[in-house]
Amino acid sequence: MQVSRKCNDPAQYDDLAAQWWDPRGAFMMLRRLAAARALVPAATGDAVLVDLGCGAGLLAPQVAGKGYRHVGVDITASALAQARAHGVAPAGCCGPGGLVVIDTIAATALARLVAIRLAERLPAVPKGIHDPDLLVDRTVMVGECARHGVELTLRGIAPSVTDLARWLVLRLDTVRMASVPTTAILFQAVGRKAVP
Ligand SMILES: C[S@@+](CC[C@H](N)C(=O)[O-])C[C@H]1O[C@@H](n2cnc3c(N)ncnc32)[C@H](O)[C@@H]1O
Fold first, then answer.
1. CATH classification code of 11-192
2. What is the signed CA dihedral for 51, 55, 56, 62, rounded to 10 degrees?
3. Calpha distance 181→56 (Å, rounded)
4. What pLDDT is recorded for position 8?
5. Ligand 1 centroid vs 101 CA: distance in angstroms?
6. Is the entire prediction scored with pTM above 0.85?
7. In a designed cystine with 43, which of 21, 28, 47, 151 is the match (CB 3.0 to 4.6 A)?
8. H/E element holding 45?
9. Which ligand 1 atom minimizes the distance to the CA of 57?
């Protein structure tokens, strides 16, 4: 039986704890997003990769072998325990020269329609997992990161339409994220902290 939770209640992640690593489970889209983050280059020297809101560590296989100490921060203990089991160490820091890779949903009417109202009707997205009031204002994010020495470059991303159709019809777990011309729905931001 599904328990009813308010939007963005972290307890949802406890309810769904058994599904993090299920390729057909509630977090299958997060697995595809983690794959899109594989652009992280190989580490040089003694580098730390700080994974904020790391969940169960779905990024771990994507960066394994790249030479990072993969450190995770998350409010959900059940998720963090799984992340630890996949080689992610709790807590950490991000210093000069560090690379920031963010993917999130833009604070726009279009995103509220597509990424919440429509997407949460699909089996691939848990209903009520997103809080429309907490979507990210791109201008504020770019400004705040610049204030802290990180110049962000944004690109719009979305599940590949052909892959999505293959998943819906054939249940093939091969949905990749593709670049799209707008950052007004789901977007990825990449930047490096300036070295003084
Ligand atoms: C959508 S999941 C993304 C997990 C992971 N980044 C991934 O892509 O697989 C969001 C994660 O953020 C965590 N989270 C939400 N609010 C948080 C907070 N205030 N502090 C730390 N983690 C938080 C949740 O527990 C959850 O694991």
1. 3.40.50.150
2. -40
3. 30
4. 79
5. 15
6. no
7. 47
8. none
9. 9
